[in-house]
Amino acid sequence: MGESVEIRAMKSVRSHYERDGRAITDVSHAIGKHAGYDLIATKDSRELKLEVKGSAKPYHGIPDLYETQVDEYNKLRADFLCVAYFPPGKRERLAIISREDVLIDPKPKISYSITNECKKEETIKKFLVP
Question: Nearest 5°: phi and psi at 129?
Fold first, then answer.
């Protein structure tokens, strides 16, 4: 049996940022001050907090967020939402979406839905890494 989509996504994002010369710290199982994101990518003392999601859907499905990944202002806690796509029969792709571009449906619940507007194929294309 192959690796889960989540593990493949973490490896994909780690690899992308390491190619950019960033040191990666996995905080996905940490609690406390690192709750709400999976990786910290550091370069020249600048830290980027990264929430990692994986999807086996084509390049427009974005998995919903959990309560711990969203702040009290309905904004992503991480600096970037990184979605690794592994659609069957298609090329693997990575989308890196800034906190400001993640539109969250503010209906309170344990997980937060990404609005349908943000899940459209034409919307996600601008975030795909070449």
Answer: -75, 135
| Token pair recorded at residue 108 | 């309170």
Q: What predicted TM-score, i.e. pTM, was given to this entire model?
A: 0.81
Give me the torsion for CA of 67, 27, 119, 2, rounded to 10°.
-120
Is residue 97 within 8 Å of residue 48, measured between CB atoms?
Answer: no
* H or E, element range at 55: strand 46-55
Rg, C-alpha atoms of the chain: 14
**Separation CA 49–CA 104 (nearest Å):** 18
What residue has token string 């086996």? Answer: 56
Summarize pLDDT for 75-93 with one digit per residue, the tens.
999 999 999 999 999 999 9
